[in-house]
C-alpha cells in the first residue's frame, strides 16, 4: 500500500478538523478526534502538521476558499448590473451557509479562540485579510463586467462588503429568518451600488464629440 504524501494528509486533516468543529465545537476538536474523523492513526497527525493550532490556519484557508468559489461562480455565469452582481454573490454565499450552518459557526468560534490564544492571535487578521482579498476579487470581477467608476477605494469597498457579510451571517445563524436575510442582501446591494457610477465608453464619447 502506497504512503499518502504529507500534503495530502494535511489537507485531509484540515477537512476532518472542520467537520469536528462544525459538528461538536472547537473544544471537541482534539488531535485524537481529528484523526478519528479522518480515519488515520494518531501518528499521522504529527507527521503531517506540527500542531493542532497550526492546523486551524489550514481550516481558515479551506473555508475562505470554498466561500469564494461559491460567491464567484454566479458572477462568472450571469450578467446584469453591479447591484445584481452583489445580490448574486451574497445570495450564493448565504446558500452555502444554509447548507452547513456549523461551518460558519466554526469560523466565528475559531476567530474568538485565536484572539485569546498566544501564538494564534495573528490568525484573525490573516483570516480577515483573506476575506478582504476575496471581496476585492469579487468586486474586480463585477467591475470587469459592468465598468463602473467607484466613488471610494476598492479596499474600503471590500471591507464594507465583508462587514455586510459578517452581519448577515451572524443574524441568520441567530434567527434562521430567510426572508429577512434576503431583504438585508437587497439593502446591502443598494448600498454598494451607491458607490458606483456608470463609466461612459470611450467610443460613445468620441461619437458624440463635435467634429
Write up what this structure looks like.
- Helix 1 packs across helix 2 (31-38) and helix 1 (6-24) crosses helix 3 (42-48).
- Helices cover 77% and strands 3% of the residues.
- The chain folds into 2 domains: 1-49, Arc Repressor Mutant, subunit A; 52-199, Tetracycline Repressor, domain 2 (Orthogonal Bundle), CATH 1.10.357.10.
- The protein contains 10 helices and 2 strands; from the N terminus they run H-H-H-H-H-H-H-E-H-H-E-H.
- The radius of gyration is 21 Å and the shape is elongated.
- The protein has a two-stranded antiparallel ribbon.
- It has helices at residues 6-24, 31-38, 42-48, 52-77, 82-99, 101-115, 123-146, 154-175, 178-194, 202-208; strands at residues 148-150, 196-198.
- It is mostly helical.
Could you write a compact summary of the structure shown?
This protein has helices spanning 6-24, 31-38, 42-48, 52-77, 82-99, 101-115, 123-146, 154-175, 178-194, 202-208; strands at residues 148-150, 196-198.
The poorly predicted ranges are 200-211
Instruction: Please state the second-level CATH architecture of the largest domain.
Output: Orthogonal Bundle
Radius of gyration: 21 Å
Query: Could you state the CATH homologous superfamily of the largest domain?
Result: Tetracycline Repressor, domain 2
**Amount of helix:** over 70%
The number of helical elements comes to 10
Structural class: mainly alpha
Beta-strand proportion: under 5%
Mean pLDDT: 88
Number of DSSP E strands: 2
CATH topology of the largest domain: Tetracycline Repressor, domain 2
**What's the N-to-C terminus distance?**
78 Å
Side-by-side strand order of the widest sheet: 1-2
CATH secondary-structure class of the largest domain: Mainly Alpha
- Shape, principal axes of CA atoms: elongated
Q: Describe the main β-sheet briefly.
A: 2 strands, antiparallel
Which series of helices and strands comes N to C? Answer: HHHHHHHEHHEH
Quickly count the domains.
Answer: 2
